[in-house]
Structures are given as structure tokens and as C-alpha cells.
């Protein structure tokens, strides 16, 4: 039984530029997914041919909250969630409709 993988595209100006010029698409993915599983999921969901997959782990930024009115804890510190990003390069002639320029 195969696990269904939810693909969440990272939609920013920089990722739109990468998609148009280099056929490189960026997704936020769960931390336990590897390159082969992700490549198969993209190929199956969008019916495209995947050339390569690169992944990176982004550490969450440290944040601090200071309260004056008492609703938040005074000088509470914490971190944002860690993010794992996958960069997918598609074969010539393939594209993803999610990243089509508006």
C-alpha cells in the first residue's frame, strides 16, 4: 500500500522565475520524504517526466515575543517550524500548470 504524498507548491516571485526559465519547480514537502518517493509522486500526479530532484532543509528562525499589555508572556522565545524544500527539474517540453504565469 503506497502512501499518498500531498504536494504543496512554493509560490513566490523567485519560484515563478525559476519555473519559466529553467523548468525548475519548488515544493514544500514533509521531512520524512526522500528524492525517489518525491520524484515518483510528481510524475504520477502531474504526468510529467522528472529529470532531477534536489532537496534542502531550512532551519526555523528564532523569534522572540515581548509583551506590554500582559496578553502574551513577557520575553517568550521560540522558533518557527523547520521546512524541507524540493527542487524538481522536468524534462524538455514538460511544465506544471500550477506555476503558469498569470
Which descriptors apply to this entry?
2 helices, alpha+beta, 32% strand, four-stranded antiparallel beta sheet
Secondary-structure element string: EHEHEEEE
Task: Give the biggest sheet.
Answer: 4 strands, antiparallel
- How are the strands of the largest sheet arranged? 1-2-6-3
- CA(first)-CA(last) distance: 38 Å
Number of strands: 6
What topology does this entry show?
Blueprint: E1 8-9, H1 13-22, E2 24-29, H2 35-46, E3 50-58, E4 62-65, E5 76-79, E6 83-90
Antiparallel strand pairs: 1-2, 2-6, 3-6, 4-5
Describe the protein's architecture and organization.
The chain is α+β, with helices and mostly antiparallel strands and 102 residues long. It has helices at residues 13-22, 35-46; strands spanning 8-9, 24-29, 50-58, 62-65, 76-79, 83-90. It is elongated and about 55 Å long. The model has no long low-confidence stretch (mean pLDDT 87).
Task: Give a short synopsis of this structure.
With 102 residues, the protein is of the alpha+beta class. It has two helices and six strands. It has helices spanning 13-22, 35-46, and strands spanning 8-9, 24-29, 50-58, 62-65, 76-79, 83-90.
